[in-house]
Amino acid sequence: MTPDGDGGGTAPEPDPALDPDVLEELEFWIGPEDDDEPPASSRSHSAGHGATTAPDPGVARDGGTAAPPGAVVLVGTPIGNLGDLSPRAVDNLRGADVIYCEDTRHSRKLLTHAGVTGVPLRSLHEHNEGNRIEEVLAAVGDGRTVAVVSDAGMPGISDPGARLVAAAAEAGVTVTVVPGPSAVLAALVASGLPVDRFCFEGFLPRSGRDRRERLEALAGETRTTVLFEAPGRVAGTLADLMEHCGASRPVVIARELTKLHEEIWRGRLDQAASWAGASPLRGEVVLVLGGAADTEAPTVSDELLTAALTERLARGERTRGVVDDVAGTFGVARRRVYNLALAVREPSGPDVVRAAGPEPE
């Protein structure tokens, strides 16, 4: 993510933020740098200056079991604080034959911090994941252990990896997971909102009908919802959520989770929109939206909605505005009102259609 560590011993007191300023202070990774070279059929873990001998791939240093040969291993990495990289994650990264990562430059610095050297890196990101799948499956078929990481958190959660796992599962390949930090769960449990039932929305569509329909769905969602958003779009998204969900809906804004400047803001949507718009936000942001009241809405008949639509469309008002107003007035889904508006318009002839105008996206 994006919105979606100091290992072993007593943790020191450095700046825990995993950001470019901190990472640039780490030593540059010493080892193979050609991430466009396919993984070799065999690799020596002693390659490169200062490299260490790989441990037995079947036994981790903490006594647990490392990934077996011929497997895809999804490894969770820190969402900010380097201290969250687990010993088991380090063992599996060190014992892998090749590591596929979202950004090789980012992962090299993290691996240097963890003391993992000599393992070839290959890129696997949203633009090339489809092309890498056969390559990964071939490597696993040859008995190699392939680790997969994203820049932060778990691969596959708003990050590359999901398509690879689906293909591996279909091919009968072993897929195992080394759990790690999660921005979704960290924000959820810190929110103070109900956690017994929740859903993950990820990033909303940027604009258009898809965004509007997702916002309408969130307006009626009774579970707590976790969303990711880029810092520059948080204020706009909060304003859209307020418009669809109401000003009083509770929301939590979690920013820079696990980092030095971690911030968790709690309040209502109207307050949140004002707060986020007051000054630009920086860093990764997670929004946690409270659920809608779980009460049975009063039944609104199609006849009542049709009567309201007919009266206004006959005056030549634009369909889009009429549909929005009627849906809001009666508290029903916009899609339902729009379908009724189409039924009102069609028998009335082309003059009414032209006056009402087409439904824009």
Structure description:
It is a single chain. This protein is an alpha/beta fold. The chain has three domains: 20-181, Tetrapyrrole methylase, N-terminal domain (Cobalt-precorrin-4 Transmethylase, domain 1); 184-289, Tetrapyrrole methylase, C-terminal domain (Methyltransferase, Cobalt-precorrin-4 Transmethylase, Domain 2, 2-Layer Sandwich); 302-356. The chain has 13 helices and ten strands. The protein has helices spanning 20-23, 87-95, 104-114, 129-141, 162-170, 183-191, 208-220, 234-245, 269-278, 302-313, 319-330, 334-345, 350-356; strands spanning 71-75, 98-101, 121-123, 145-149, 174-178, 198-203, 224-229, 250-255, 263-268, 285-289. Strand 2, helix 3 (104-114) and strand 3 form a beta-alpha-beta unit.
Number of helices: 13
Q: Topology as H/E string?
A: HEHEHEHEHEHEHEHEEHEHHHH
Q: Globular, elongated, flat, extended or rod-shaped: what is the shape?
A: elongated
The CATH topology name of the largest domain reads: Cobalt-precorrin-4 Transmethylase, domain 1
Supply the CATH architecture of the largest domain.
Answer: 3-Layer(aba) Sandwich
The proportion of residues forming helix, as a percent range, comes to: 25-40%
Please give the CATH class of the largest domain: Alpha Beta
Strand arrangement, largest sheet?
Answer: 3-2-4-1-5
Unreliable sequence segments: 4-34, 40-63, 348-361
Count of the domains:
3
Give me the secondary-structure category. alpha/beta
What is the percentage of strand-forming residues?
5-15%
